[in-house]
Structure formats: C-alpha cells, structure tokens
Amino acid sequence: MRTWVLSFIGLVLTISAATRGDAISVDEVRAKAEHGDAKAQFDLGMAFYQGDGVRQNYREAAKWFEKAADQGITDAINNMGLLYSKGQGVGRDFRKSFEWYKRAAEAGNATAQYNVGVSYDFGRGVSQDYHEAARWYEKAALQGDPDAQNSLGSLYQSGQGVGQNDGKAAEWYRKSADQGKPDAIINLAYMYLMGRGVEKNEAKAFELNLKMAKAGHLRAMLNAGLQLRDGQGTPQNYEEAWDLLNQVRMTVREGPLHWKAVAALDQIKTDLGVDRSIGRLDYPEWQVVQRNIRQKH
User: Fold this and answer.
1) Is there a contact between 191 and 198 (Cβ–Cβ < 8 Å)?
2) Which fold has domain 1-9+26-104?
C-alpha cells in the first residue's frame, strides 16, 4: 500500500526535567521555540502532533510546524503537507498538501519526494501522472527510502509510468525488503512464487510469506495459507492452511482479502468432502471439516 508518510525526527520530549543526556523537557523546548529556534519549533510541533508530554493538539502542531517550515526545516515543510492531506489542525486541502510536499521534495527531503510520488500516483492535489510518480519515487528510493523503493518496484511490475520490467521490480522490492518493509517482503515473495524477475523458488516465497504471516500481516496470511493448501514450496497441510485463511476471513469482513479467504476455505471443504459454502457453515459441519482434516494428516 502506498500512503503518505510523516517525518519523525527530533529530541526525546518528556514532561519533567530530563533524566538522560539527550532528553529535554517540553517547557524547555517551548522556551527555545518561542525564541525562534527552528529545531525546537519542529520538536514542539511533533510533541503536539503525537501528544508527547502535552495534550495532543493538531492545531498547535500545525502552528509550530509552519514556524519551523518558514525557517527552512524540510521535515516541517513535509509535515505541513501531511496535515493538509488529513485535515488535521487545518482545513483538508489536497492541493495545498501537494504544494507543501513539492516544496520539501525540491529541497531534497526523501520523505517528501515519496509523498510527491504518492500524490502523482493517486491524483491527490495534482493530475494523476504515473511517469511523474515514478520519477519522484526514484529520487526518494535512491536516497534509501524503503516506501519509495517498494512503490517504484510496484510501478515496474505493472509497467505504469515506466517500462514494464520484472527484474527491476524485484530489485527494488529487495532493497525495500532488506530494510524490513513488510509490503516489499510480501511483494518479493510473490516474485519468487511466480518466477518473475527472479529464479522461481516456491520455498523461498513460502519462507517470506510465513515470516510476515507470523508478524500478523493479513496479505501474507492469505498467501501462506494458499501455499499450504496447495503444497507450494511446503508440504501440503490443510489444518495450518485452514487456521491462517480463517484468521483472514474473521479479521477482514469484506473486500478482496475476505472473499479470497472464503473461496480458499471453500476449496479446502470441497477437497475434504463438505459441500456447503463457508458462509453457511454451521457447527456440526465445522466438526466434519476438522475430522476430515485430521484424517487427511
């Protein structure tokens, strides 16, 4: 999923006097901010945004971010864009959001470059333009931004804004995955499963999907469940497949993930000789499924 990112940098903010060398009280930050210290203005904006040491107040966050932005703090400029995109502390305005992002991006801020890419990708505050999305994603990706690397990989995989290239897609997914980006790890698993841009390796795909499934990522649960059901890259195991797929079904009550999980569970039921749809499965039939699974293994 491609989404906007808020810049998080700054001092550790505490309510009381500092007990660590790198910690500073909110009162001290406020005093510095009111005397024009740009870094303190940014830190105070973050404190109000997160409710860290003060009561959360988006309007105050916007006030201090804007003061820091006026002094050239690019993370504050980017954060003003996010506030306008969400309507937090300011009126929601995607056009203004894009203008703030673009200002920070042109100053070299990688997070803002990613956000400009998202804006072009989804046509938020600017006309949709996949070519421009790819251009800005690449700027951020070359600075090591994992969200941008994953999104650039997605564009290469689909051929939107760039020439379709599975090899480059896998390369960017891998760079993002190496930084621990869950979506990129799941995307890379798909490339291994299908043999797109990399040598086909179903076992590697299952390893990556299972890792993310254990971390609670629903798309990975679905994918690992499907591999367990079909014996792709791992021995077939209906019981483990059922557990994963049913978690997806019960967690997401509508949308593509839910219905893919339902269809996969129905296929298991068909394989095990239970006729009715999972949507109409009553308790006695569930016992039949469980018994058949145990007999299968």
Assistant:
1) yes
2) 1.25.40
Residue 14: strand pairing partners: 25
Question: Per residue in 219-233, pLDDT tens?
Answer: 999 999 999 999 999
Query: pTM of the prediction?
Result: 0.85
| DSSP letters for the chain | ---------SPEEESSS--STTEEEHHHHHHHHHTT-HHHHHHHHHHHHHTSSS---HHHHHHHHHHHHHTT-HHHHHHHHHHHHHTSSS---HHHHHHHHHHHHHTT-HHHHHHHHHHHHHTSSS---HHHHHHHHHHHHHTT-HHHHHHHHHHHHHTSSS---HHHHHHHHHHHHTTT-HHHHHHHHHHHHHTSSS---HHHHHHHHHHHHHTT-HHHHHHHHHHHHHTSSS---HHHHHHHHHHHHHH--SSHHHHHHHHHHHHHHHHTT--S-GGG--HHHHHHHHHHHHHH-
Q: Mind listing the pLDDT tens digit for each residue in 245-292?
A: 999 999 999 999 999 999 999 999 888 876 655 555 544 555 666 666
For the chain, the structural domain boundaries read: 1-9+26-104, 201-297
Please report, as a single letter, which amino acid is at residue 181.
K
